[in-house]
């Protein structure tokens, strides 16, 4: 605006007009400031959609910056946007919006194989590309084993049917006595809510969706789906574990969506994913461990745990893919960025990190509780990306090298185990949770240094054997929560507080992976031993219960049917 002095107007009159204009401009600038300030109080994804996903966005997306979405070209369904990765440009064909939405239920249809709905996730110059195409390639791989994974011998078929019957028995009793609650108390025949999930309910329902579907229990699956559609309330206040909500609710809903294509699962998981984002509002971007899922989300103070903030990557990358919102991927990529920057003692990752300073809080290292799934998610992120996530690959094999150098031990009796490390001093203890590592090391054997492949397979087999010994050396043939290798003990719990078994899956999981990798029949036999022990010692009138002492011939039950028993152990 141009101000001109008009003839016949006095200086005092002009001064008045200027002051009025000054007040008006001040008011206008305040209004603009208020509007833009309000923008930053909107949820993060709302801001991103307005800023990054406008109708006029540039279809060329440079991978290597912080913006990581490639989208269709508005108004031209046949035009191909390009995704630039360094000096390399990859052409992606993108159809109309209706074609753009890939449904997992159509994954096996020929048309689905030709769709190209892609995005890329990137961290600095060492980023990794994830896309619908990558995920579909994982889903379209044929089942492992002969006859497309279906056993031909009658004994194995009968055993499969037995496990399916166990699942139906556990589910039916949950439905009868605890429907809508988080878990079943089978001795007292009532439901358990607990405090891990805040105000969320139905953990066993969400966690079991994929198991029900895979086992062909379709009536039960439909019941679960209907409950989620009508009753799963994500707007409840209460402190919830970010880790537990992610692996049980987010993971459960994502798995169900990819298996079935049912939109309700996608809708719910994206809504829940948004509610987890405030946990990342820390000076470092390392999320807090506890979050309130109410409308005003917040996260509690305290150290963050490696296995918790390191067990978000798989789910959050999928959240970005389904929502077309890069923020989820950016959050977990930032975790990697910080972990790669800070010093690691002897190459090891301690279990506790300050989300405020970004420094390790104490030097306790374990691949069992507090550390375990961080390593699992590294190798699985690499595999899920169709082996394009080179950063995850590098982090995993570097960690494995440090673990072997510092933690892997051999007992006097010849058992290989993974000890814990406390500020340079070894604690010759291995937890049940650490027994997943046999399977993990096995599935990672192919993609490390070529000369190490057989070594990793051997190490995986040795660790799995040790974990089987922890089962076979107990009266119940079930393993304790932790077992030790000191004071003459080998693969046995020497403390009363370590003798319980809560229906955990890790040992059986390693049997399954090792069977798939080697087809050595002993792994199937070991799995069947565990089934028989569960039936004998954990099955009660109204479900399955953990036991307090695996070494006692007369068992005492803990009155809890964990949701992961249905979602993992029986699967």
UniProtKB/TrEMBL annotation:
Cofactors that this protein relies on: Ca(2+)
EC number(s) given by UniProt: 3.2.1.-
Coiled-coil features, chain-numbered ranges: none
UniProt KW keywords: Calcium, Disulfide bond, Glycosidase, Hydrolase, Membrane, Signal-anchor, Transmembrane, Transmembrane helix
Subcellular location, record wording: Endomembrane system
Class of this enzyme: hydrolase
Cysteines paired by S-S bonds: 435-467
Cellular-component GO terms for this entry: endoplasmic reticulum; extracellular exosome; Golgi membrane
Transmembrane feature ranges: 22-42
Chain positions covered by the region annotation Disordered: 66-125
Catalytic residues identified in the record: 244 (proton donor), 372, 481 (proton donor), 506
Pfam families linked: Glyco_hydro_47
Gene3D superfamilies documented for this protein: 1.50.10.10
InterPro entries attached to this UniProt entry: 6hp_glycosidase-like_sf, Glyco_hydro_47, Glycosyl_Hydrolase_47, Seven-hairpin_glycosidases
Domain of life: Eukaryota
Molecular function GO labels: calcium ion binding; mannosyl-oligosaccharide 1,2-alpha-mannosidase activity
Entry similarity comment: Belongs to the glycosyl hydrolase 47 family.
Cited function: Involved in the maturation of Asn-linked oligosaccharides. Progressively trim alpha-1,2-linked mannose residues from Man(9)GlcNAc(2) to produce Man(5)GlcNAc(2).
PANTHER family on file: MANNOSYL-OLIGOSACCHARIDE 1,2-ALPHA-MANNOSIDASE IC, MANNOSYL-OLIGOSACCHARIDE ALPHA-1,2-MANNOSIDASE-RELATED
Name the record gives this protein: alpha-1,2-Mannosidase
Organism of origin: Cyprinus carpio carpio
Organismal lineage: Eukaryota, Metazoa, Chordata, Craniata, Vertebrata
């Amino acid at each position: 605006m141009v101000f001109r002095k008009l003839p016949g107007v006095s200086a005092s009159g002009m001064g008045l007009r200027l002051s009025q204009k000054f007040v008006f401009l001040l008011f206008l600038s305040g209004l603009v400031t208020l509007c833009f300030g309000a923008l930053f109080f909107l949820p993060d994804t709302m801001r991103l959609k307005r800023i990054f996903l406008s109708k006029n966005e540039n279809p060329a997306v440079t991978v290597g910056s912080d913006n990581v979405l490639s989208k269709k070209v508005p108004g031209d369904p046949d035009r191909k946007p390009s995704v630039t990765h360094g000096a390399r440009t990859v052409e992606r064909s993108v159809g109309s919006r209706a074609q753009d939405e890939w449904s997992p239920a159509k994954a096996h249809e020929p048309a689905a194989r030709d769709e190209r709905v892609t995005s890329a996730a990137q961290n600095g110059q060492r980023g990794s590309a994830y896309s619908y195409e990558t995920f579909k390639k994982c889903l379209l791989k044929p089942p492992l084993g002969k006859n497309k994974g279906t056993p031909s011998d009658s004994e194995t078929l009968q055993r499969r049917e037995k496990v399916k019957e166990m699942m139906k028995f556990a589910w039916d009793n949950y439905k009868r006595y605890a429907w809508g609650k988080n878990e079943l108390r089978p001795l007292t025949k009532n439901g358990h809510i607990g405090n891990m999930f805040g105000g969320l309910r139905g953990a066993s329902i969400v966690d079991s969706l994929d198991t029900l579907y895979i086992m062909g229990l379709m009536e039960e699956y439909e019941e679960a789906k209907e409950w989620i559609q009508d009753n799963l309330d994500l707007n409840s206040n209460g402190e919830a574990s970010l880790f537990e909500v992610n692996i049980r609710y987010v993971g459960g809903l994502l798995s169900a969506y990819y298996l079935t294509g049912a939109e309700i699962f996608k809708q719910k998981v994206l809504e829940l994913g948004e509610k987890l984002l405030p946990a990342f509002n820390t000076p470092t971007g390392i999320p807090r461990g506890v979050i309130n899922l109410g409308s005003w989300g917040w996260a509690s103070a305290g150290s963050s745990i490696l296995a918790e903030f390191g067990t978000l990557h798989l789910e959050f990358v999928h959240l970005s893919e389904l929502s077309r919102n890069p923020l989820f991927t950016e959050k977990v990529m930032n975790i990697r960025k910080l972990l790669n920057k800070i010093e690691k003692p002897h190459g090891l990752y301690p279990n506790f990190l300050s989300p405020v300073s970004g420094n390790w809080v104490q030097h306790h290292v374990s691949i069992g509780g507090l550390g375990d799934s961080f390593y699992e998610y590294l190798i699985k992120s690499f595999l899920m990306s169709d082996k394009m996530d080179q950063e995850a690959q590098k982090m995993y094999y570097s960690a494995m090298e440090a673990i072997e150098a510092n933690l892997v031990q051999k007992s006097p009796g010849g058992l290989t185990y993974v000890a814990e490390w406390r500020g340079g001093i070894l604690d010759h203890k291995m937890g049940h949770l650490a027994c997943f590592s046999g399977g993990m090391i096995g599935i990672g054997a192919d993609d490390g240094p070529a000369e190490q492949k057989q070594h990793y397979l051997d190490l995986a087999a040795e660790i799995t054997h040790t974990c089987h010994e922890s089962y076979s050396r107990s009266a119940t043939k079930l393993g304790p929560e932790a077992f030790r290798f000191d004071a003459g003990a080998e693969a046995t719990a020497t403390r009363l507080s370590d003798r319980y078994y809560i229906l955990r899956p890790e040992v059986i999981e390693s049997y399954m992976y090792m069977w798939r990798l080697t087809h050595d029949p002993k792994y199937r036999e070991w799995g069947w031993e565990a089934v028989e022990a569960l039936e004998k010692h954990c099955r009660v009138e109204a479900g399955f219960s953990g036991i307090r002492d695996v070494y006692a011939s007369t068992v005492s039950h803990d009155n809890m049917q964990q949701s992961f028993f249905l979602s993992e152990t029986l699967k």
